[in-house]
Amino acid sequence: MLSDKLIKSIIEKKSPIVVGLDPRFESLPADIRTKHLENDGSTLKAVSNALIEFNRGIIDAIFDLVPAVKPQVAFYEQYGIEGMIAYKDACDYAKSKGLIVVADVKRGDIGSTSKAYSNAHLGKVEINGEMISAFEADFATINPYLGNDCMAEFMDDIKTYEKGMFVLVKTSNKTSGQLQDLKSGDETIYEKVADIVCQWNQEICGETGYSPIGAVVGATYPEELVALRKKMPKAIFLVPGYGAQGGGAQDVLGAFNEDGLGAIVNNSRGIIFAYQKSNLDYKSAAREAVIKMKNDINQALEQDQKKYW
Amino acid sequence: MLSDKLIKSIIEKKSPIVVGLDPRFESLPADIRTKHLENDGSTLKAVSNALIEFNRGIIDAIFDLVPAVKPQVAFYEQYGIEGMIAYKDACDYAKSKGLIVVADVKRGDIGSTSKAYSNAHLGKVEINGEMISAFEADFATINPYLGNDCMAEFMDDIKTYEKGMFVLVKTSNKTSGQLQDLKSGDETIYEKVADIVCQWNQEICGETGYSPIGAVVGATYPEELVALRKKMPKAIFLVPGYGAQGGGAQDVLGAFNEDGLGAIVNNSRGIIFAYQKSNLDYKSAAREAVIKMKNDINQALEQDQKKYW
Known about the structure:
Oligomer: homodimer
Distance between the termini of chain A: 21 Å
Strand order of the largest sheet of chain A: 1-2-3-6-7-10-11-12
């Protein structure tokens, strides 16, 4: 089961970290930008080739240090078809290096449409009797606003192909509370979503005690993180908001269970663009940033008596 | 302003209808499937070429009858890069025929990521000083779960490029009530989202009295439709759920204001696959289905004294 694979990889690499592959063309190293602009002009193709080179460099630099990467599809979609070619390359190249791929797509729709999204990112499509993959990731992030049937459509592929999903519960952004924090009866809306995640965790759970149906809970709301951790003991938390968004090692501690497991903390810009605040090349800077983040989190876990290794 | 353009086109064509371009390869006419499987084998490329041929046929058959089409991106995304080529073709070809394109993408994310989605579907990306479009639609559908900042990021492009968005308020699927119908204080969650839409409508509104910030409200919940219509007088309603999902002309009446305007009703399968229940070819069947739907809705509006033409 994918949750077991992720937990085992976290333990093996001593690294509850996911590297966010959110490249922005204007933030890439100048030599990569210049090279591809010279090759292909000011085109989407130039950008796509630059993103591919950059991402492969990042993946080469960090694949032995972390269990997973998380490409944010919006940063590829904005470059059109060519951008989606770079997105697919990021997924495929990361998988070729043994990494688990979290497709940060935040999809969700009515039943048959959700199934199409599941086909796109976790499953396969049938063409004349042949089963073919489109964008093959391992986990996908899912928006719950449409209710259970938008999630249910992903379950077949999750079971058939050993995939998983992270349901948005409490997001890291400033206005996340506008709907998510509203109280209905004794619970907030995000707690209601957490209840749905718990139901799925009853239905499917791995031998490590963790389910492939996880939850997105932002590092920027540490108190909510602690309460939600208690509420969803079997869910792996995908924790955005570390680094550029303001969260630090102390802020994410609450995302971990007493066994020191159950969370992967995402850092995107703080790793892939670490070179901007460093004298190192972008790959070495990314590697150094991952090692620092890993040490910071593991040290905090040890002090909190949540050592897992 | 895009809302004015849409309202004027509805009046001109006497047709508050949007045709959903949600092609499934297995549902396409046999001759189209066979031709492209023979040309390209059982590949994503064969599917993409088949979707392109099919969509262009549908658009040719209905472009003079309706103001807008709504490609649902999930049905393209599931066919990977090749599928996205067909998606872009649907947008581009529809625009070349003067149609307004609603990108049914249901996107939404934290600030900077939402901006990337806005670039992808409504705006442009900057490459070395040049502004380039990725997937150029007119409206995009937006999921509100992350709160206002995920919507705010679309506003610049909406103002700069005369675009618009439809915010998911009350969706047409069976479990839409699971979160959307929860009461917080005196209001449901979907009413809270409606309040946000109203705020945007205060900020931007066209000369026809309608704003480019609209709302998705399902035809499958007619009572909610009536209440929401009163609550959001300036919002254009995008109404899914007509036809295959069970809604009829009487069910959508509540989506219209007293002026007979303010709504566009979507029908996907009931139009594009009308040929399956007809002796006509797929184009003629789609045209006939649009004409019938138009007559049914306009007749219901007339009986309800909401005639707008």
